[in-house]
Design a protein that fits this description.
The chain is an alpha+beta fold. The chain is 17% helix and 41% strand. The protein has a five-stranded antiparallel sheet with strand order 3-2-1-4-5. The two termini are 20 Å apart. The relative contact order is 0.22.
Amino acid sequence: MCLAVPGEILRIEGASPLEQMAQVRFGAVEKSVCLAFVPQAQVGDYVLVHAGIAISIVQQDEVQRIFTYLDEIGELDP
């Protein structure tokens, strides 16, 4: 099963939409993520990320529901 994880965009780099990369925070971890599929994304937005690619923008209330569910099934444990 594949899983997309929500993260918050901290910084965006790159001039053209197809080349834009973002630093995205997933809890205590930051990763570089491609924004080619969501060129309208902005700093502060939450995006669903799969395999290093942001696949959609997610509303903050939905992010909270996702994290609550992951916590319930034990996927947020260190």
